[in-house]
Every structure is written in C-alpha cells, then in structure tokens.
Amino acid sequence: MPQFDHHIFVCENLRDPDDPRGCCALKGGEEIRLRFKEEIKKRGLKGKVRANKAGCLDQCAQGAAIVVYPEGVWYGHVTVEDVTEIMDSHIIGGKPVERLTI
Amino acid sequence: MPQFDHHIFVCENLRDPDDPRGCCALKGGEEIRLRFKEEIKKRGLKGKVRANKAGCLDQCAQGAAIVVYPEGVWYGHVTVEDVTEIMDSHIIGGKPVERLTI
C-alpha cells in the first residue's frame, strides 16, 4: 500500500468570481500546490511527501484551504509565501504552523 | 479544526486517451465520487464523512484509485459498483475491503 508521511491536499475549487462564498482557486490554490511540489522535490522528499490538488474542502471562507493527512491538520488563508514555513515547521519539524491552523 | 471520521479522496485526473499510463477520470472517477456523496447523504453522514475530488494520486495503473484518511487505506481498480461495499464494510463497519486494497 502506498504510504506518505504527509499527504497535502490543496483546495483548488473554482467558483464564479461573483460568488459570495469565494473559492480557493482564486486565492492561489494552484500556485500553492506547485510551490509545495517544488519544495518537496528540492528537499528530496518525493515518495515520502505528496502535494495533491483537491476539490472543494468546504472551507471556502478560509481559503486558500489545505489539509494534511494522516495527521488531519487544517490550514486556512494560506498564501504561497507560507509554504516554506509549513514545510520547515510542520512537514520537516513535526510542528504545525499554529497561526494558520483552522 | 474540521475533522472528518473518514475523508475519501477519489482520483479524477484526466489524461489523453492515448496515454499508456491511463487515468482515473476515464475509469469512472467522477461517477465514483458522486456515488460516495449520495451514499454519505443517504446514511446521514454529512459532516462526518466527506468525499472529495483529487488530482493524480500516482496510482494510474490501478485506477480508479482512492485513498481514505486518516487511516491511509488505498483502493485500486474501484468501480461505481464497489462504493456501497466500501461504505458498508469500511466507512460504517471499520473493516477495509481487502479485495480492493493496493
């Protein structure tokens, strides 16, 4: 069975720009996922850590939203600038980034 | 923090039909996810169990592929006909469907 130490799901759900709920696609979802992929590769973590696109995680008001399994840690209002800190503190260091958890 | 008893990610990655790797979108990924959503609703599990679309889970040869967190159980060659059994045995009963695990 495949097993990742950390499996990062980044919401990339797209809604109409006029939709009051907002959506993670318009809050940088794809860019965040691509940055995670870069950081994973750069740190030699391919096969141990995976970043995946996800459909709506139902945290629209808190987008861009992310969930990391198996630990089930949720992040909201994530920007591409936060990726390095999540990688360093949480993925490498085992300490979730409290200021971003939801 | 949101917390699902079971968070089901269904690969719906789409590749060109000629791509030798195959892809889960062409093996019923979306239909499988929609069936999970129906079953979750029917059984009153909304809020406790969630089925989400996922990008490529890197199990292309075993599509349609699914991973269920936080337990990290992976399924391959899933069809829409398998959804009820996964719901009954695994999601409700706590016993993964061995014949489909990868």
Descriptive overview:
- With 102 residues, chain A is α+β, with helices and mostly antiparallel strands.
- Chain A has two helices and four strands; from the N terminus they run E-H-E-E-E-H.
- The first copy, chain A, has helices spanning 29-42, 83-92, and strands at 6-11, 49-54, 66-69, 73-75.
- Chain A has a four-stranded mixed sheet with strand order 2-1-3-4, covered by helices on one side.
- In chain A, strand 3 and strand 4 (73-75) form a beta hairpin.
- The model of chain A has no long low-confidence stretch (mean pLDDT 96).
- At the A-B interface, strand 2 of A face strand 2 of B.
List keywords for this structure.
globular, homodimer, about 25% helix
Summarize it.
Chain A has 102 residues and is an alpha+beta fold. Helices cover 24% and strands 19% of the residues of chain A. Chain A has a 4-stranded mixed sheet, with helices on one face.
How many beta-strand elements of chain A? 4
Low-confidence stretches of chain A: none
Q: Percent helix among the residues of chain A?
A: 10-25%
Neighbour order of strands in the largest sheet of chain A: 2-1-3-4
Please describe the biggest sheet of chain A, giving its number of strands, its sense, and whether it closes into a barrel. Answer: 4 strands, mixed
| Sequence of secondary-structure elements of chain A | EHEEEH
Strand composition percent of chain A: 15-25%
How far apart the termini of chain A lie comes to: 30 Å
Radius of gyration of chain A: 13 Å
Count of DSSP helices of chain A?
Answer: 2
The interface involving the most residues is between:
A-B, 26 and 26 residues
